[in-house]
Write a structure and sequence with these properties.
Elements: E1 2-9, H1 12-21, H2 36-45, E2 50-52, E3 62-66, E4 78-81, E5 87-92, H3 95-108, E6 111-115, E7 121-124, H4 130-138
Antiparallel strand pairs: 1-5, 1-6, 2-3, 3-4, 4-5, 6-7
Helix pairs in contact: 2-3
Length: 155
């Protein structure tokens, strides 16, 4: 369960040194931010229902909340996107942010997930696995039962 996590499009200028400090080899190519429509497409394709959340003015950023279906929630609860393209994920299992970041990386290039305290990071590319992602951020294997990848009752 993650309290918060950010996903930042990889740029060498911003993140290469940070990744090296983490013992992670930086990607060769750079990424770019996903448009909100791209993130919404990922959510629709995963069949994770959502509603727009918060202010809706031109300068207010973008935010969605996932919705429950039949009393169960997708493995994701809330996503925000700042003007700089950084995606913020709050409250929920790691699988939801991983899935969104990996799908975004398919069209937008490498993304870097950073755990709330900034102590751990993972590079996300189309070839990344959830097991690698979970291990990099939590130093523990992903739950073997796959429970955190499925719809679940709220905790």
């Amino acid at each position: 369960m993650s309290d918060s996590l950010v996903v930042i499009p990889y740029t060498a200028e911003l993140l290469a040194g940070f990744l090296r400090d983490q013992g992670i080899e930086p990607p060769e190519r750079e990424g770019h931010p996903a448009a909100p429509a791209e993130v919404e497409r990922v959510l629709r394709e995963a069949d994770w229902p959502f509603v727009h959340n918060g202010p809706s003015g031109a300068d207010d950023g973008w935010a969605v909340m996932c919705e429950q279906r039949e009393g169960r929630w997708p493995p994701l609860q809330e996503i925000t996107q700042a003007d700089d393209g950084v995606l913020g994920f709050r409250l929920g299992p790691l699988y939801g942010p991983f899935h969104v970041a990996r799908e975004v990386s398919r069209t937008c290039g490498p993304q870097v997930a950073v755990e709330s305290g900034g102590a751990r990071a993972a590079v996300v590319t189309p070839d990344a696995t959830y097991e690698e992602f979970h291990l990099a951020l939590y130093e523990t294997p992903a739950p073997a039962d796959g429970e955190d990848r499925e719809w679940s009752p709220p905790r």
